[in-house]
Amino acid sequence: MARLDFLNSWISLLSFKMSYRRRDHKSEVSRSSTFPTLGTDEESESDEALDSFSTHPNNYIPRNASCPVTLRANKSNSTLNSSKDGRLSRASYRQSLLEVGYGRSETYVKLEKLGEGTYATVYKGRSRLTETLVALKEVRLEHEEGAPCTAIREVSLLKGLRHANIVTLHDVVHTKTSLTLVFEYLDEDLKHYMDTCGGILSIENVKLFLFQILRGLAYCHERRILHRDLKPQNLLINTRGELKIADFGLARAKSVPSKTYSNEVVTLWYRPPNVLLGSTQYSTPMDIWSVGCIFCEMSSGRPLFPGSTVKDQLRRISRTLGVPADGSWPKLSSHEEEVITRRFYRRAPEQLVSRALRLDSEGIDLLAGLLKYDVKTRLSAKNAMQHNYLKKYWEATKELPETSSIFTIPWVQLSKNPGYRTGVTNAKG
């Protein structure tokens, strides 16, 4: 119970601990927010940042602001205590957040229910502060157990991620019965997008979406964060075509000391074979395998390995890719070798092109690189971005800031899909 009380106390502070930095003396203060992570020094670092945060006589909240916005205290407001040099104290800064409306449930209006899971319900909502649409992920709090570890993990990771291809966490609202995560709103996920296109996407759109997935994933992997649940349902898209990686509930920071990880990660269809076989020692290549499966699904309109069980999944993989060659796996015990022999088909593999008929030779080469059995030779996200198949996007974005969308490049736009259905406004001609 002591641990649960500590976690709940920590959650109640999430919406108050933010750090800011100035871009320059005349520009606005950056709106990126951070939250303290358990077991780190970030709380003290954010306190130092608050000490250096200066005020301004306006309380202006821009419509496109990320929550919480740069708050500026009105000197005439007696409820906010500032020092002689005009800086807000930490207590006053936190109070100002509450007074403006951040961290309060009444700030957000639920418009419609989008979906429901085991621990959370997602709503389309509207922020009364900025009058913009938001996605509200409402996590139910059990009286005995408190907040699920997935919600705590998602918040603690997303607080430090600021990238154009990663969904933005705006705010956290904690009440006695729920913990609500407030995200930017995007129109649909990749699965729904493919369904509305009849499963036939323009190859240019396939390239565009694949590059954005890899771009966001490379950013995560550079910070040693594993997503561990990449699938079309967790990739969100807006009407412009911007794609963002979402749902970090199963994500894990590789820098956190741990001898092994759980093998109960990644939806079955997108799970790499070493994890299917029970491996708990894995790294960033596990996400790359999932990207390969998604890439093939986007190009063909069908899941690459739609297994019903772990055994069926392994057999489907071996039908297409063959049996792993010697040296493709880490050292295995005799029992594990027996499992491989029993579960894989001993037969010549199919050609990958037979599963992705619309891909050219360069596309097939990239797909093969993403689906290597040997994790040591499997492409990294950054190397995949530089592949000839995606070269034009790589060359155009090398100098693009991480927080800038690929669509800021004039010639980049969403193409009309061959399977585009009348009445669905999700493509541009």
TrEMBL record:
Protein keywords: ATP-binding, Kinase, Nucleotide-binding, Serine/threonine-protein kinase, Transferase
Catalytic EC class: transferase
Pfam family membership, one: Pkinase
Location of the Protein kinase domain: 108-390
SUPFAM superfamilies assigned: Protein kinase-like (PK-like)
Catalyzed reactions per annotation: L-seryl-[protein] + ATP = O-phospho-L-seryl-[protein] + ADP + H(+); L-threonyl-[protein] + ATP = O-phospho-L-threonyl-[protein] + ADP + H(+)
GO CC, one annotated term: cytoplasm
EC number: 2.7.11.22
Family: Belongs to the protein kinase superfamily. CMGC Ser/Thr protein kinase family. CDC2/CDKX subfamily.
Name this polypeptide is given: cyclin-dependent kinase
